[in-house]
């Protein structure tokens, strides 16, 4: 009898755990009667397909054992963007609208996503205050990781992590922030620039160290063909290159692209004639991780001795700095 009761208790606990992690989603697709909806897991600013559901008469559903609460994506075409969603243990209903990059999509039932939506509607957020109001929410960890990791100093990141409830410290978002802190300290202005080796646009391995010291200043530029702000900044960088290349200025560019053809097409279209390299790993890019790059465009100005002298120079600031250093 005792063994039977123990079995019942174990079964009940197992069922409860499975039920807690069971994602239940029903939804409809705006203007789409048939096709496929893809369920994606979010990792390092990118989405990876983990399941799919057929659209029947504009309706779809998912019932799947997954990690909850967590961030996922829903997409009708994985090459054309995704709807980022925060799922918790509650059943959710989704109105999936792919127009305007899913900005018109809606979700009901997930209290976690409600908080995320409220966060996104705020024009200006003090991240420390937001975390203090919602210390145990995954939204707080995500916001710190996604929107503030590239704005804050290492000490400020440490401070905000401590404001989070300890239950969030083992999430991938906080763990990546913990890994980022020493990297940002290593690439601070005044420190030596880390070296790396990666293939150029012709498929030949290039040592970054070989380009240090060839000119008075080397501009290490992180960009991607899919990055709108990067493409808009490229004409400014081309202008600076043309103006100062004969005065001891050179550029070494690292792309966070995934598709080689898109990368090469952007190089040609934007007239980027300096050294271009990429491991085609998006945000898993080795050089980007080495330099703690969490948003692009990003750049580092390095002197002939390999020392970082400035960071994230854009627009007129780039020209002004080069004018002061080279004239």
Question: Which features does this protein show?
Answer:
327 residues, alpha+beta, Glutaredoxin, 5-stranded mixed beta sheet, 4-stranded mixed beta sheet, 10 helices, 35% helix, 27% strand, disordered N terminus
Task: Write the SSE topology.
Blueprint: H1 2-20, E1 22-29, E2 34-43, E3 46-56, E4 59-65, E5 70-75, E6 83-87, E7 92-96, E8 106-108, H2 111-121, H3 127-133, H4 138-148, H5 154-163, H6 172-186, E9 197-199, E10 205-207, E11 217-223, H7 228-244, E12 249-255, H8 260-269, E13 275-277, H9 286-290, E14 298-303, E15 308-311, H10 316-326
Parallel strand pairs: 1-7, 11-12, 12-13
Antiparallel strand pairs: 1-4, 2-3, 2-5, 5-6, 7-8, 9-10, 11-14, 14-15
How many domains comprise the coordinates?
A: 3
Structural class: alpha+beta
Main pleated sheet: 5 strands, mixed
Q: Treating each run of at least 4 consecutive H or I residues as one helix, how many helices? A: 10
User: What characteristic shape results from the CA principal axes?
Assistant: globular
Q: Roughly what fraction of the amino acids lie in strands? A: 25-35%
- Average pLDDT over all residues: 93
């Amino acid at each position: 009898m005792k063994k039977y009761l123990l079995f019942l208790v174990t079964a009940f606990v197992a069922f409860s755990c499975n039920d807690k992690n069971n994602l239940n989603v029903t939804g409809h697709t705006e203007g789409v009667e048939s096709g496929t909806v893809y369920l994606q897991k979010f990792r390092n600013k990118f989405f990876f397909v983990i399941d799919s559901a057929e659209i029947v008469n504009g309706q779809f559903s998912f019932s799947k054992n997954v990690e909850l609460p967590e961030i996922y994506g829903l997409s009708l075409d994985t090459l054309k963007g995704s709807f980022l969603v925060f799922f918790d243990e509650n059943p959710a209903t989704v109105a999936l609208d792919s127009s305007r990059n899913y900005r018109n999509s809606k979700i009901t039932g997930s209290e976690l996503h409600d908080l995320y939506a409220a966060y996104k509607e705020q024009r200006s957020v003090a991240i420390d205050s937001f975390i203090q109001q919602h210390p145990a929410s995954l939204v707080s960890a995500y916001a710190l990781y996604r929107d503030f990791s590239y704005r804050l100093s290492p000490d400020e990141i440490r401070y905000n992590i401590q404001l989070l409830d300890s239950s969030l410290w083992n999430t991938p978002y906080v763990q990546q922030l913990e890994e980022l802190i020493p990297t940002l300290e290593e690439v601070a202005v005044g420190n030596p620039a880390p070296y790396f080796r990666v293939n150029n646009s012709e498929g030949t391995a290039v040592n970054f160290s070989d380009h240090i010291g060839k000119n008075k200043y080397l501009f290490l530029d992180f960009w991607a063909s899919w990055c709108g702000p990067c493409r808009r900044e490229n004409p400014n960088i081309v202008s600076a290159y043309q103006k100062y290349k004969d005065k001891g200025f050179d550029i070494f560019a690292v792309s966070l692209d995934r598709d080689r053809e898109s990368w090469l097409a952007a190089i040609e279209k934007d007239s980027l004639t300096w050294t271009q390299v990429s491991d085609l790993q998006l945000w898993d890019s080795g050089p980007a991780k080495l330099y703690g790059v969490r948003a692009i465009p990003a750049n580092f100005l390095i002197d002939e001795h390999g020392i970082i002298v400035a960071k994230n120079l854009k627009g007129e600031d780039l020209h002004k700095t080069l004018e002061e250093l080279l004239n």
